[in-house]
Amino acid sequence: MTTPFRFTEPPPPKAATGRVAEVYEQLARDFGIDKAATFVVLSSAPEILAPAWALMRESLIAGAGSRTGKELAAYGVSRANKCPFCVDAHTVLLHATGDHALAERLARGEQPESEEHARVLAWGQHTRVPGAGLMPYPFPPEHAPAYIGTALAFHFINRIVSSLLTEQLLPGNVQRWRPVRSLAGRSLAGTVRRSAVPGAALALLDDPAPGPAWAAGTTVGPAYAALRAATAAGADLLDADDQALVREALWDWDGSHPPLSWAGLPDRRERPGARLALLAALAPYRITEEDVAAWRRPEHTDDCLVRLVAHGAFAAVDRIESAFTLHAARESSPDSSSPHPR
Description:
mainly alpha, disordered C terminus, 14 helices, about 0% strand
């Protein structure tokens, strides 16, 4: 029997207890997909699983704004990140919202007919570029925390999926057949179209901080802060020099996909940890068995691998998020017309 997991064997969901079991219970109720592989793959590191789920739930599922719009933004993010698993998943979920024609236009590689939908899709794609001109938002300003949270959640999830899962959403990629994705979407319609109460996932988190300014006053902020803190702890798997290398590479990153002849990528024989973290951040689909084997030591459990990949993945998310934080700071300045807030 084949599994969707690469390089790791997560604990069997049926044996889950404690916080992991609580996440699976919320997943089934609010996402409609029982024990989704996207989150099962994180279960070796429950301290990352819970906030990753919380960020997606509080933004995409329970956050303000149209579910179709947020699915479109997530689709754009996933396409920009070259994550076919997530592109297919959001096509199915658009069917679940009832927007069947829109889902099929995207599946054929066409643009949405609606200009509003096209702008949201483009916005999602452009979020991959740190500092890209993302204003004005293609959605009401009061919906920005949920849309931004959705985009950042999937910048993280895309990288986890591309690193640690195969590209097959369903066995044999049967979701690429129109009748299958339509039927799969209809099976999720009841859950997707049901309103979810914000805040339920915050009970799974340990004393999260309020979060960034762009999410102020919403449940998205604490979820983002919790995921940032949980993934930052993965830095302890890298020495100081490797941590600095990852930081500097992300600071210089312009949102592009690295070339095959990537001069800045460390040799796996010399700095395997830094290599894995950088690949997870910028080109997770290029992680190979050889990369993981070069890093693995007897003490490197599946928990360690998930934590290292998550650390690299969130380093890219944090770089992208810095543009939203900068904009929020300017908006809240006493004199927002000044380039140097007082």
